[in-house]
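I hope you will forgive my troubling you with a question about protein structure. You will find the record immediately after this paragraph.
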Amino acid sequence: MYTVQYLGNVVDGNPVSFMNLPLNEFKKLILDQLKDGRLVWFGCDCGKDGNRETGLWDDTQFDYASTFDMDLEMSKEDMLDARHSAMNHAMVFTGVNLVKGKPTRWKIENSWGDKVANQGYYICSDTWFDKYVYEAVVHQKYLTPSQKKVLKLKPKVLKPWDPFGSLAD
């Protein structure tokens, strides 16, 4: 469990905390909530590998590595630490395309209006999700018993300048 110093600094407000999970568990919780007909709020870096007009976020649509003949891959952790990526926008997952039970692309509702993308709806590839989705709000009823135990732990307090500490980089 984590929290960020000064986050939720409203008198008598609800504390804001985060559970750090492996990617497969994170996705399963989001999928379970979507399958139950409930939307999922999430925070991501929407400035990477996307096209605002067509409404597609896909980390494979631009081939920068071949253009520059370089390996440009970075881990999610390294991208955060180097400030190459950061949470800078929040949106809502409204659906997911599954092939043999595995997500291939995700349907997103955004707040940029209905004049862009497909009437304000976007698609992201599953690999884009893996790279650039950082947090999601999932109802506790979808958590496993072991995850529910983690909720009771005292959160580690991150400094406000920690890369995880802001949804607006």
Observations:
- The longest strand covers residues 89-99.
- The beta strands are 2-4, 40-44, 50-51, 56-57, 89-99, 102-109, 121-125, 133-136, 156-158.
- The helical segments are 23-35, 64-68, 76-81, 126-132, 145-151.
